[in-house]
């Protein structure tokens, strides 16, 4: 009970509580993302079922003692933050642990307690991962202890069935034997479930051995893609492909083959892509968008969803490229004029603004003074300046500056302008 905790500890706990919750949510969000990626890449199935910040009375009861420095309590409580991951099969547990180990920018694994191979005396089975949330990634600026429990469905069933009746109590020998027997029986169910999983997950060495009636899996999809298009699919494309197939409730290999072989639908989407981006879909994009179309309530609705997705992605790419190009512009027009007088031109930015275009005859990049001056003034909000930007552009002569268009022939480089004058 809280009344058994020192007041100064309760005050400090209350002050830190929201920050601890924020740290827990950060871990929760990261692991949800990673578990989703792991499911798409390797078919590992796990989900977070419980999260909590340890209650103050429990925290004090575990490590508190008279005279202890309060800050030490938060460091010593191994499960100050807690998450539980429940997975389908025994074979899911270790890949999840390796996923956590690999993401060491935010979490550091300190210890792994294996209670699958060595169950507790009552029969509890799980793996507990003692970790720390790095001080770089939490507002408290100190490592925060976090325990992550990983259980199978059967192990979780035993823990939930037993907790209310057995946890924290003196257990009579007869009840203890029954609890151990229940644990053994559920462990046998885990082993049978794993045999089924292993049988279902057997993947052929070549795509031609995959039958249309087989369930889809990331491995089978990767083989199908390589067999059809002669190259490996990108990992992130595979993740997205799996996601849309699941959303479309496509679960058999034959259904995937039918989607990929739909030449009319690909032709329609290539037209959309050419209209938006001026080039057709790549094969890895086609795999994703064929599944996206299947998520629609009709083929027409699905194509509209794919069209929006292609446009949104392209707009994002264009906006990012434009932002990167314009990052070369000086902060103020005064600095721009100063650079211009030194024969320095931010070529990429000026090209993005339309001040540098291609010669209409040969395609050579040329700087068009009038258009460049208007574009620069517009970029800086049309300020009043004493300088004549158009004249400054016309006077450029540096080795690394763009060629200025021919004075007599608009839109042409000097060479083409000279050639056209001879033709006349």
Descriptive account of the structure:
This protein has 17 helices and 8 strands. With 424 residues, it is of the alpha/beta class. The protein has 3 domains: 195 residues, Beta Polymerase, domain 2, CATH 3.30.460; 117 residues, no CATH class; 91 residues, no CATH class. The strands form 2 sheets. Strands 1-2-5-4-3 form a 5-stranded mixed β-sheet, with helices on both faces. The protein has a 3-stranded mixed β-sheet with strand order 6-7-8. A hairpin with a 6-residue loop joins strand 6 and strand 7. Helix 5 runs antiparallel to helix 6 and helix 12 packs across helix 14. The radius of gyration is 32 Å and the shape is flat.
Helix/strand/pairing category: alpha/beta
Largest sheet: 5 strands, mixed
> How would the global form be characterised?
flat
Q: Which CATH class of the largest domain?
A: Alpha Beta
- What assembly state would you assign to the polypeptide chains in this entry? single chain
Separation of the first and last Cα atoms: 100 Å
* CATH homology superfamily of the largest domain: Beta Polymerase, domain 2
CATH architecture of the largest domain: 2-Layer Sandwich
Q: What amount of the residues lies in strands?
A: 5-15%
Using only C-alpha atoms, the radius of gyration works out to 32 Å
* Beta strands, count: 8
